[in-house]
Design brief:
By secondary structure, the chain is an alpha/beta fold. It is built from 15 helices and 21 strands. It folds into three domains: 100 residues, Beta-grasp domain (Ubiquitin-like (UB roll)), CATH 3.10.20; 187 residues, Domain of unknown function (DUF4445) (Nucleotidyltransferase, domain 5), CATH 3.30.420; 163 residues, 2-Layer Sandwich (Nucleotidyltransferase, domain 5). It starts with a strand and ends in a 6-residue tail after the last helix.
Amino acid sequence: MSEKITLLVHGAFYQGDAIRRRMLTAEKNENLLTVLKRGGLYLRDCSGNGSCGKCKVRFLTGAPLPTTGERALLSAGELRAGVRLACRHTVSVSMELVIEAEAAAIPDVVGVLPDAVSAWRADASDAVSAWRVDAEDSVGLPAPVFAAVDIGTTTIAMRGMCGGKEVGAYAALNPQRVYGADVVSRISAGMQGHAEEMRQQICACLADGMRLIKEQCGRTPAYMVIAANTTMVHLLCGDSVEPLSVFPFEPVNIKPQQIVVAGIPAYIICGISAFVGGDIVSGMAALGLHKGSNLQLFIDLGTNGEIVLGKKGTFLCTATAAGPAFEGNGSADLMGADLIRIVAGVLDEGLMDAHGLLKEPYFTKGITRAGAHVTQESIRELQKAKAAIAAGIELLLEQYGAAAGEVSDVLLAGGFGYYLNPDAAVRIGLLSDAFAGKIRAVGNTALKGACLLGNSDMSGFAARTEQLTKGCTYLNLAAQEKFEKKYISHLDFPS
Ligand code: FES
């Protein structure tokens, strides 16, 4: 009989200061990284081949002896503190671990936003019971396993789902990253003849995920539901990305689609425009925005910032290039949310003026806070990014005919939203102070939406997803005369 082993995992799942813990079980001798992923705890990783040195965990008790590879990748201090690489160890005894914030990659929505989660669960169980009725009436078979997929520009996340329950999980860095971190660089790589290679990279990754989910639950997913931005969808479907690079930025196809990936049907969630894709539509589904009667603002920040404003029936959305600032300094050692917190602190300390200029000697050599080094250049990048987002929000509100104070919830998607300190976001002027107290992290809504949209009779998929985009109007910021002026007015920090 297989032996079950318990793991208690702390940290990396905190909001504010509330440390979260999660209890996981593993089979004896299972790989630790696999166990953590299955439990929804994602580490920055290289799919477990031991070369990136990022899948760090800290053993609170009984740290195993470090491997030769770990001695090369980890510092002596880390090794002494019990830090090890999860992919290099198996689970043989009960253990207690800490995942430090900087090692975590994609936070799970569970435990972050109880309201949204329970709303999602309620929706999911509705969908599940609806499906069960269908299933029992028609074939009387057990619920199918399907794979919900979020293809992000940076990360690919997958969940195996069955009857509304998670039965497997997989995450990997998007292999297309070798062609650049953002969609613009992927589009240009596609135009330079690398599109087919990028398509194959994603397909191989999805096939890997399918294999892993099958290993975890013993069944091959019958189909997958994919949430992705418009560029990722074009690359996956083999459509030309060229139209996404030139005015009027007309996508080849943003309708719901069905293709075959890894030998199974893959349902692709429809998008709204070249820059507001199926990942956002999926997020809207996860959050139930189309049912809400209060005005809500939904923001997904990364190298691009997508913003949706509205309530049941009428939505305005837009997207703005935010550059690398929200991804930190482009490496794992400074995340964008940390940069915002540090800059807010430096403002409060009076070491920087409202124009974003550090006082000497920091102007020349940068400033170090909480172990992270921030330069004048990274502050400048942050100013541009936050000005673009703040101006975008202001324009949406104006066009909607609403004041910032009328917004009832500001919902921040993705890992960035999870780590962002709302007070710091308001302090630097990324978000209006009228939003204070209303800002909440909602986790990976693209993935949650795919879980939800796949949990139903798939013959109605196209109609159901298109319904979500009804009443959604895309606002092209570049065509708005006022945008430039607003952007400039938001470059400074609030004094
Ligand atoms: S996953 Fe890269 S070292 Fe473990």
